[in-house]
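QA checklist item 7 of 12: single-chain prediction sanity check.
[x] sequence parsed
[x] length recorded as 154
[x] structure emitted
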Amino acid sequence: MEAYRRALEIDPGDARAHKNLGHVLNVLDRPAEAEATFRRALGPDDMEAYNYLAVVLKAQGRLDEAIEACRRAIGIKPDYAEGHVHLADCLLLDGQFEEGLREYEGGRASGTSPCPAAAWRSPNGTAPTRSARRSWWSVSRVSEIPSSFAGTRP
């Protein structure tokens, strides 16, 4: 962490150092500092900085802001798989299942990131109902998806 801080003393505008420091702060469970650091890394064409900011915001339960940050990342690079996947996570956590599933498909279509979300479709091809929302919070792996809306698995 000190190396990144020293690098930023030399070049306060070093976006890579800000992003790396933000990661360290996030791992150390210092979300407010991580958020501020990622915000300093934001640039008009830096999709990663917006994506990393979204991850920190999502972890704090600030889904509206996280969704906006994901959309900014995807706006910079529409085929940015990680951005689609993180946006899908945020939308699903917010109960926006249809849109969340479309975003997972967008991430998978880019071919650069695995998207386990195809398994979330129900047998008739639709998204799970809002009543399934509580199940989402307790699912940590695709293999644990409740069979009531798991559909076919990839």
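[x] summary fact logged: The first helix runs from residue 2 to 10.
[ ] second reviewer sign-off
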